[in-house]
Amino acid sequence: MSKSPFYSILLPTYNERDNLPVVVAMIEQYLRDIPHEIIIIDDNSPDGTQEVATALQHQLGPERIILKPRSGKLGLGSAYVHGSQYARGDFLIIMDVDLSHHPRYIPTFIERQREGDYDIVTGSRYLPGGGVAGWNLKRKIISCGANYLTQLLLRPPISDVTGSFRLYRKSHFDRLVSQCTSKGYVFQMEMIVRAVNANLRIAEVPIIFVDRIYGESKLGGQEIVLFAKGVLQLTFLE
Q1: What angle (nearest 5°) sits at the alpha carbon of residue 180, between those of residues 177 and 184?
Q2: Largest alpha-carbon pair distance within the chain?
Q3: For residue 188, what are the domain limits?
Q4: Cβ neighbours of residue 27 under 8 Å, at least 6 residues apart?
Q5: 215, 19 in Cβ contact below 8 A?
Q6: Percent of the chain scored above 90 by pLDDT?
Q7: How many CB atoms lie within 10 A of CB 70?
Q8: What is the CATH number of the domain that holds 192?
Q9: Is residue 1 part of a domain?
């Protein structure tokens, strides 16, 4: 009988002291029968997120909660690289800690991966059954416009290239992320573009994306400009 796969959940954090314990509790609820670990990569949050993470480790144990803090805000992509170095899992799960990605979808990601032996499973807001909640009209227009631009120029085989709720086979993740040069929101797109170029098998699961409950959104004008530039650069990626 083959060994059950082990899953490493990477949680980059910055000022998420209110959200982190809620997300961890829900992960434990939905993955109680699935072998897993949670790796928290905190970028020296001034709000005390690291102290909350330490308390969670004391509560659940160092085998379940792995703390790999960094000295400051060094970027999302590098946070995943940092966390993956310590991951024991056969698969990595990346997700936001602001409660926009509900842990209830993780078992569905795992089941979908097993069905087709996929290398990547990504959550999609644009499949039937998916969507967004809590966004104002401006945010919806920005999101739809960004996805339309991405689909028009990159023509990816999936419906939601900018999503950041994904399951990766660890060996492929490590190779892809070592090749990526993008930062911010473009990082997620480049990972998919490079995965397609490498002929990896990708599946989607519909998700409802919920706007953050606690804290402030990190999407600003600078990120939108960088996103547009990134899409154009990825158009010529080989």
Answers
A1: 100
A2: 53
A3: 7-236
A4: 9, 36, 38, 103, 106
A5: yes
A6: 61
A7: 17
A8: 3.90.550.10
A9: no
Closest to 159 measured CA to CA, from 144, 172, 139: 144
SS (H, E, C) 76-137: HHHHHHHHHCCCCCCEEEECCCCCCCCHHHHHHHHHHHHHHCCCEEEEECCCCCCEEECCCH
Average per-residue pLDDT for the chain? 87
Single-letter residue type at 235: T
Could you give the number of structural domains in the chain?
Answer: 1
Q: Which two tokens stand for residue 218?
A: 């990190």
CA distance 190 to 179: 9
Of 179, 180, 150, which Cα lies nearest the Cα of 163?
A: 150
Q: For residue range 125-137, list pLDDT tens digits in order.
A: 999 999 888 767 7
Neighbouring-strand partners of residue 39: 10, 66
Structure tokens, 118? 């996929």
Q: In this predicted model, what pLDDT tens digit does every residue of 65-122 receive, in sequence order?
A: 999 999 998 888 889 999 999 999 999 999 999 999 999 999 999 999 999 999 999 9
How far, in Å, CA of 71 to CA of 88, rounded?
A: 23
DSSP 47-75: TSHHHHHHHHHHHH-TTTEEE---SS---
CA distance linking residue 138 with residue 88, whole number of Å: 41
Contact 40, 66 (CB under 8 A): yes
Q: What are the angstrom distances between the C-alpha of 54 and each of 87, 123, 223?
A: 18, 29, 31
Confidence (pTM): 0.87
